[in-house]
Amino acid sequence: MRSILLAAVVVGGVLLGAVPGSGPASVAAASPPKVAIIVGPVGGSTAGYKRDADAAAAEALKYTPNVVKVYTPNATWTAARAALQDASIVIYMGHGNGFPSPYTSTMAPDRHNGLGLNPTAGGDDSTTKYYGEQYLRNEVRLASNAVVILGHLCYASGSSEPGKPDPTLEQARQRIDNFASGFLAIGARAVISEAYGSASANYVAALFTTRQTVFDMWLTSSASQGNPTAFASTRTPGATAYSDPDRSSGKFYRSIVGDPALMTTTTSQTTPVTISPNGDRVNDTWTAKLLLGGAGTLDATVTAPDGAPVRRLLSSTNGPTATITWDGQTDAGIGAADGRYTVTVTGRDAAGNTGPTVAFSVVVYRAIGSVTTSATVFYPQDGDTLAGSTRLGFSLTQPATVTWQIVDAAGTPVLTTYDGVALLARSISLKWDGRDQAGNLVPAGTYDSVLTVTNGVLTDVVRTRLTASAFALTPSVSTVVRGGSVTITAISAEPLKASPKLTYTRPGLAAQTVTMSKIKTGTYRLTIRLSNNGGAGTMAFKVTGIDTRGGTNASTLSLPLR
């Protein structure tokens, strides 16, 4: 039977303090796993790479507070080296200088197969100095069983630079093997390369929330082309490498090298998920999505802090996934008391084989109720009053200590309303006009309202995503492919006189402007079908509309294009 169970818990994080490895990690680990995210200078692509890196950082922060970001123009070797030490997950986005190279017939360990960084701090986003595998081997040690994710690099996945001749199969395999070797030598057990690196956030989620081999995670990724071929590593004896050439072009955009037995997470969840089953539809239930080998059943038992069973949950599936949901009720149909509960789940396939039991920690804590937001998209930056603010609110149902902040996309607080303040039960609201603690308007972008409530034993956190911009723009894909299509959905913060226009640009082609279709009041959509013309790089979108007072409103979005 193909192994049972592992899970993406929909409502919260897992494995704080566990290190991804091939066997169970100690639930008493002394510190949470470290995630190091490095973005090197890449000229005009820098902003897009930083957005991908920020998305990965935001995902990692759901599971561990130990996330270190080193971004150009301050991504020097000194800063990167410090970030890499003892990291369990490494994400690097930037230029890749690999071998075989069209520029030299001899591999240079001081420059090849490493990182492209800033020569000095505070410089520009275009000047690159390469620190090759020699620097990694001599000066860095990763955590045991670390996973390295290389995003957007040339050469690392076997590819060539844009405009250079495609490699032969043998050259591509050498590039894959060489680029991984330095990272494997310093503690990594798997090195993943995605030439179009927007999948990094998905990999972070899978590493923390699923039980599977890292190789299976890579093989079943949404970026998969379905053409994996394996070969033995020459540079790292005992390691296995896979390449997954692009289905249509045969180009080498994806690879993985390492130990095929390496697992993502342990089978125990050590960080509790908190639910507040009070009927306000915010965190009312706990749900786990689990992987079986095929058709089968899940049998779960919820036990109270004293070990007494309070609820049995059963779920069946025709495979390969099943879900278990707990609404905070006991078998008697009454609400479970506030406290920490354990949900143990066993999977059984159609043949009667059972897999390992998975244990989840779920906290019931009803201190937060009636969470409201008047508008998740608002536009304070233009200075008019059409949509200049949003009102957030919640009810505190029992005395607790409250911290309430607005944070930017990188998780940095821009406004703190309460900072560890003890409050009695009451209703609380906040009108946010897009200004930071100093009274300055924040830049257009996405923000989170982060509400943390605790009684000293139990804690609940509610995050609400806010867009402070003219439009909230959502693409249907994270990477645009020539010959494919992309759908852009725009939600307007302000009422418009007419449907907005979408202008899009691609490398080597003239900009095009098209009127978007109205889906419902305030929501517009447009699907763009691309030709095979033009080059790879970045595709830029700009949505522009005229509000009912005659003001011009605009928001922009960039996506990698291949």
Per CATH, the architecture of the largest domain is 3-Layer(aba) Sandwich
Instruction: Provide the number of structural domains.
Output: 4
Radius of gyration of CA atoms, rounded to a whole number: 25 Å
CATH topology-level fold name of the largest domain: Rossmann fold
Helix content: 10-25%
Distance between the termini: 39 Å
What's the main sheet like?
A: 8 strands, mixed
Model regions low in confidence, pLDDT < 50 over at least 5 residues:
1-30, 266-271
Overall 3D form: globular
Hey, roughly how much beta strand do the residues contain? 35-45%
Mean pLDDT: 86
Strand order of the largest sheet: 3-2-4-7-8-11-10-9
Specify the structural class: mainly beta
CATH class of the largest domain reads Alpha Beta
The total of helices stands at 6
Fold and architecture overview:
By secondary structure, this protein is mostly beta strands. The protein folds into four domains: 32-258, 3-Layer(aba) Sandwich (Rossmann fold), CATH 3.40.50; 273-364, Immunoglobulin-like (Sandwich); 368-468, Sandwich (Immunoglobulin-like); 471-561, Sandwich (Immunoglobulin-like), CATH 2.60.40.1930. It contains six helices and 34 strands. It has helices at residues 46-60, 77-84, 133-139, 169-185, 200-209, 214-219, and strands at 7-9, 35-39, 67-71, 89-93, 115-117, 129-131, 146-151, 188-194, 229-232, 240-243, 254-258, 273-275, 286-291, 296-303, 309-317, 321-326, 339-349, 358-364, 368-373, 377-378, 390-396, 400-408, 413-423, 426-432, 445-454, 459-468, 471-475, 485-492, 501-506, 509-515, 517-520, 523-529, 537-546, 552-561. The chain has an eight-stranded mixed β-sheet with strand order 3-2-4-7-8-11-10-9, sandwiched between helices. Strands 12-18-17-14-15 form a five-stranded mixed β-sheet, with no helix packed on it. Strands 20-26-25-22-23 form a five-stranded mixed β-sheet, with no helix packed on it. Helix 1 (46-60) links the parallel strand 2 and strand 3 (67-71). Helix 1 (46-60) packs parallel to helix 5 (200-209) and helix 3 (133-139) runs parallel beside helix 4. The two termini are 39 Å apart. The model is unreliable at 1-30 and 266-271 (pLDDT under 50).
